[in-house]
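Please annotate this fold before class:
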Amino acid sequence: MSTPPACPQCTLENTYADGAQFICPDCGFEWAAEVASDEGGEPAKVVRDANGQPLVDGDSVILIKDLKVKGSSITLKKGSKAKGIRLVDGDHDVDCKIDGVSLMLKSEFLKKA
């Protein structure tokens, strides 16, 4: 049986698997059990925020700068929070809702909350 990975938040190795996710009892952080490789044998893509922290589905993030929404007059303000993000493939890494508006954002403009 393989050992679970170290916690990405506190880097301690006292973690355990619980169904489809890993749990760190030391800091209470929970993250999805990622598949080590795709069908092609390449490593899975890791999405990181502006500070280099890895993001997983279900995280909460905060905007680090004002962003204009293309094709709209809406401007997203710095400090706006998005809860329960989803990671997607493509040029925009994160699918989320801010103030009831569904958006796709690049992870370089976000920080983990």
